[in-house]
Amino acid sequence: MRVFLQQPPGGTEPARYLQLTLQPDLFGGWELLRESGQIGGRAKLHRQLFPDVGQAQAAFEKARDTELKRGYQITYTSGVPPR
Fold first, then answer.
1. Contact 20/80 with Cβ under 8 angstroms?
2. Quick one: which of 2, 32, 44, 59 has the most CB atoms within 10 Å?
3. 16 has pLDDT over 80
4. What mean pLDDT is predicted for residues 42-59?
């Protein structure tokens, strides 16, 4: 699953983005990747590991919902229905 969120630019600052990716790892677990930064600038990548898909999906949905409350807007989804 993947979702790309973007926050509209404010004033002179460029737009910010957040990409959440949920994927299986090589050891039977799941990982949640969070890539964030300014469009055209450096990005940060955080990786969180989970033993099963249920916990990973709950973390994915919580992260997505938190960012939607902060003003981000979904611009692209893959493998997950848009909210």
1. no
2. 32
3. yes
4. 95
Q: Identify the CA nearest to 56 among candidates 82, 5, 21.
A: 21
Do residues 31 and 11 touch, judged by C-beta distance below 8 A?
no
Q: Which is more confidently placed, 55 or 39?
A: 55
Tell me the mean pLDDT in the region 15-37: 94
Instruction: Tell me the residue type at 9.
Output: P
Q: Fill in the amino acid letter for 75.
A: T
Q: What percentage of the chain reaches a pLDDT higher than 90?
A: 71
Fold (topology level) of 14-74: q64v53_bacfr protein fold (2.20.140)
28: left (phi over 0), alpha (psi -120 to 50) or beta: left
Domain boundaries, the chain: 14-74
